[in-house]
Amino acid sequence: MKVPKAFLEEARKKCAPEAECVALIFGISDTALSWRWMKNVAASPVFFKLDPEEVYKAIVEAEERGEELLAIFHTHPGPPTPSWEDVRHMRLWPVTWIIANVFDWHISAWRIDGGLKTIPLEFI
Question: Where is the signal peptide (predicted)?
C-alpha cells in the first residue's frame, strides 16, 4: 500500500500518547489519496472507538470523490502489532490496518486474509 509522506508527517504532529489517534485513509486501488482524522470518543491510550455517524459521513464524502476506504490508521503506546480487539474489528472492517507506535513511530500494516498477515507499506 502506498501512503503519502505528508500523512506520516501530520500524524507525528497530531498524535500523542494520551489517547489512540485514529484516521481513515481513502484512495484508489492501493494508493492513499486522502485521509480524515477521527475523534477517539473512548479517549483511551489503549483502544479506540469512533462515532458511527462521523465514519459514515467520511465514507460518503470519499465515495463522492471516487475514493474508497483503504485503511484504518491508529496508534499504540507500544509495538505496532494488532491487539486482540484490533483483530476482532479487522474481521468487521476488512481493510488494511496501519498501526504506529506513538513513541518511536515504528509502523506496520496488517490485514485479515485467511489469517493475520503483514502488508508492505511504501511512503511516497
Answer: none
